[in-house]
Amino acid sequence: MKTATLTTSRGAIKLQLFDEHCPKIVANFIKLAGDTYAGVRFHRVIPDFMVQTGDPLSKDEKMKGRWGTGDAGYKIDCEIVPTLKHKKGSLAMAHAGTCKHDPKTGKLASGRCSNGSQFYITHKATDWLDGIHTVFGQVIEGQNVVDSIQAGDKIESITIS
User: Fold this and answer.
1) Are the CB atoms for 143 and 24 separated by under 8 Å?
2) For 59-86, what is the mean pLDDT?
3) Quick one: which of 30, 55, 27 has its CA closest to 41?
4) What is the pLDDT averaged over residues 143-148?
5) Which CATH number characterizes residue 24's domain?
6) Are 38 and 152 contacting, i.e. CB atoms less than 8 angstroms apart?
7) N or C: which end of the chain has fewer CB within 10 A?
8) Does the pLDDT at position 69 exceed 90?
9) What is the 3-state secondary structure (H, E, C) of 35-68?
10) Predicted local confidence at residue 18, as pLDDT
11) Residue-wise DSSP of the chain
């Protein structure tokens, strides 16, 4: 399994990536880890829920009113794995929520998946998101950093190993 270390303005977060379960989502994350994610801000922070980032527009202070609306310029499908649940420290893809998946198989049942570049990390278990958003990683070090992140904090770099 691959790992990713997010160096943020608050410290480092080390994540185990579930590339064997979610190969397309993880490959997309790795592709964006360089130029796209470096300098993006955590634009959505909800205490006791999650922190969200990955919007390329958040690199530009002049675009502040539009942070959270940007993406990679393309959409990719979900890779829902029913056994991968939203736990404390889960890494998952953010999307518009217009797709529905079979809870037993994870297969697309209706709608269109809209994953792109935005992702979130949870502060606690969020089981109501299971089967809706692809969980593709887990915090293995630095949950205290996740819990300290404030809106506007930046990802300085992401290292994949």
Assistant:
1) no
2) 91
3) 55
4) 98
5) 2.40.100.10
6) no
7) C
8) no
9) CCCCCCECCEEECCCEEEECCHHHHCHHHHHHCC
10) 98
11) --EEEEEETTEEEEEEE-TTT-HHHHHHHHHHTTTTTTT-B--EEETTTEEEE--GGGG-GGGGGGTTS---SS-B-----TT----TTEEEE---S--EE-TTT--EEES---BSS-EEEESS--GGGTTTS-EEEEEEE-HHHHHH--TT-BEEEEEE-
Which residues constitute the domain of residue 112?
A: 3-160
Domain count, the chain: 1
Whats the size of the chain, residue-wise? 161
pLDDT digits (tens, 9 = 90+) for 15-53: 999 999 999 999 999 999 988 999 999 999 999 999 999
Return the structure tokens found at 53. Answer: 């980032």
Both tokens of residue 134?
Answer: 């692809």
